[in-house]
Amino acid sequence: MSSQRKTILIIEDDTDIQDYYRIVLGKLPVEIVCAGNGEEAFLILNSGKRIDLILLDAIMPVMDGGVFLQKLRQEQKSSIPVIPCSVDEKSVECLTQFQQFDHIFIKTQGGRVLQNIVAQKLGL
Amino acid sequence: MVSEKSGPVTFSVRARVLVVAVNELLGNENAKEVKTVINKYVERHMPLAVSGVALDLSGMKKIDSSGIGALIEIGKLFRAQKLPFALFSPPPSMREILEKVNLHKSFPIVSSLEMIDPDANDTNASMPSSRIAQPVMTGSEEISVLKQAYEWEIDQRRQSEERYRAIFENIQDVYFEISLPGIIEEISPSISLISHFTREELLGTSLYHYYSDPAIRERLLDKLRAQERVTDYEIMLKDKDGSFVPCSITARLLREKNDETAKIVGTMRNISERYQFVESLKKSRIELEQRVVGRTAELADANRKIMQELLERRRAEKELRASEERYRAIVEDQTELICRFLPNGILTFVNEAYCRYFNRRREELIGASFMPRILEEDREKITHLSEPVTADSVVCVVEHRVILDNGDIRWQQWTDRKIFDDSGRFIEFQSVGRDITEQRGAEEALKRAKEELERQNQELKKIDKIKDGLLRDVAHELKTPVAKQVMQLELAKEMLDESGLAGKFGNVLRIMDESIKRQINVINNILDLSRLEEGGRKYKCEPVALDGLVRDVLAYFNPEITVHQIALSEELTPLVIRSDKEMLFHVFSNIVNNAIKYRSREAAPRIHAGVTLQSATARVIIEDNGLGLAPENVERVFDRFYQVSASADGTGVGLTIAKIITEDLRGKIWVESDGRGKGTRVFVQMPLQ
């Protein structure tokens, strides 16, 4: 595995959807790590692993997207780019109240759309 | 005993003393008459068969310098008859005055007739045998007494004027004198406290300029002519800046020989506070009834402003110069309560209004404490009375409740002022008060209404938050499985493609794809509808170019329009209204979606879109030549889950949503159709603002 490869952190509680992301994004030259909620995500972030992009689900148990994002920006002072992922635009309001996003992935939009967004964000 | 009454004087002989009684007052108004009457009596009864003369002053309540002059002349008249002369039993206050001007040095002041003639009761005694000294009054003594009497009188007048002026300065009202034709002859400078006019601007001008409606003055004049006076008569005055000031008038008509010299004298009070209370209370109640969520901030702001106005104290009154009589007239006409009292609460002075208010006679009030009339729990508010008297706490405002004789409890506001004499010694309190029960009541009601409104808003906010969370969760639960279907179908398609089986399963994949899309559409529409029906949506108010918006909607459906070969025609007048762009997009996309879904299957399908300006409203029409509606179904299209046919590709809530949004945005939506198979016209009419 090349050290040049970018790493994407997927934060998503539904493992079926995690698998889907792995398949769809696996077609891009990226490394993928998954977390089931915000807390798990911080364990990975704090382990020292370099993360280039985060796909963030809005509604999750334990620590949802809103709490994660607020903590990431305010406590960790991290500027890692985030792409909110959810079933509709209404659900990502809990994220858009903290920052504006140029891309939001709606889960019914299909793999092609997701690939395009991620590729654009990572400059692939 | 023979008694003879002539005008203000009564003559009687008791034992051997002639008692000349002067009634009521001796002064400028009757001194001359008294002297004439006594002169005539002496002339008629010459020589007087008595051993002495007593000028009985027991019935006299007032005297001035002219009166003292008359006393001297009367004394000299009887002295000329060689008769002992004395002043007999004046009331203590009169005696004090007579001594102050040194009259007692010239004429003895006695309390029994025997002091004039010790043998008065002995009818056999020879006459005259008076034992009292009869000093002779010299010219210079007379001048000295008169001078002192005059100075005493000036001093009395000055004190009296100061007293009334002090009271006047505490009055917060405006004093005025108006001629019958309406010319302002006098108005106190305090007018500038309730209006933007100054006294100088108003003097000599016609009152008609300042009435909101001249008919109001005519009605007031009619009432004054009929009743001589009016009390707390409410009028609306026009201020310099054109605003209206509600005022209460207390006035009386001073009639002279003719109307030209008659005038109206009285006081005026700004009652906008009273109005504001009633108005703001009304407003607050209406808002409470509406229970509009999301307007909390706006309401709180409005209420804060009202409370601030409440707290603003009136500024102090400027000094006004006027004669003692004018001050007195004003004080007596006052509706404000005025009293003076000692630190222990004992009243030393009360005005008419005070007596009226407590329904007591002045004699009952003066000399007694007002404390028992103050509600027990409010008495501690009067603590300033027992505080050490210092010059820097001269004025103090206190609000407390009083119990009236009929058991009513009323709120009063008092402005207490400490009065000092020339040497800076504290004398007593002087206080101006008014009834503020009405104001207090309004204040309390407003406060309660505000609290209730706040509580309900909080509750609604809480419910709203729960509802929002619930809707979000429901949406998430409904949509996640659909999203997973989309994802799995996509992966299945790829796998079938790779294994070359895609063609075989083409129809299955297409049907699954379509039904998933329809599922998404149904879920979205039902969620939209429930959000809208829950209410509480905050609509935006932004400029919306209607023609552009309709064009955007048509562009959005361009793929379907192209696929179904629908002929599109447009007649879009450029028109900008103020409304919610996103929600209007929702409305028009639902309508256009229907026009596409229910397009003609027989003829070539057509859709026409129009935007026009119709009598100050914007009208959008979407017309098709599609399936149309039977007359009995025209009204039903807005019902929830109404569909032309069960198999139709829709959810049956599109037009319901369009209707809710349109009406929320103060617009109208209606449908016309010439019958089944004859096309449909949907109209949306929106206000421009």
Task: Explain what this protein looks like in three dimensions.
The complex is a heterodimer of chains A (about 120) and B (about 700). Chain A is about 35% helix and about 20% strand. Chain A has about 120 residues and is α/β, with parallel strands linked by helices. Chain A has one domain (about 5-120): Response regulator (Rossmann fold, 3-Layer(aba) Sandwich), CATH 3.40.50.2300. The two termini of chain A are about 15 Å apart. Chain B is an alpha+beta fold. Chain B folds into five domains: about 5-155, Transcription Regulator spoIIAA, CATH 3.30.750.24; about 170-270, Beta-Lactamase (2-Layer Sandwich), CATH 3.30.450; about 325-435, PAS domain (Beta-Lactamase, 2-Layer Sandwich); about 445-535; about 540-685, 2-Layer Sandwich (Heat Shock Protein 90), CATH 3.30.565.10. In chain B, about 40% of the residues lie in helices and about 25% in strands. Chain B is built from 18 helices and 25 strands. The longest helix of chain B has about 60 residues, at about 435-500. The radius of gyration of chain B is 47 Å and the shape is rod-shaped. At the A-B interface, helix 1 of A face helix 13 of B.
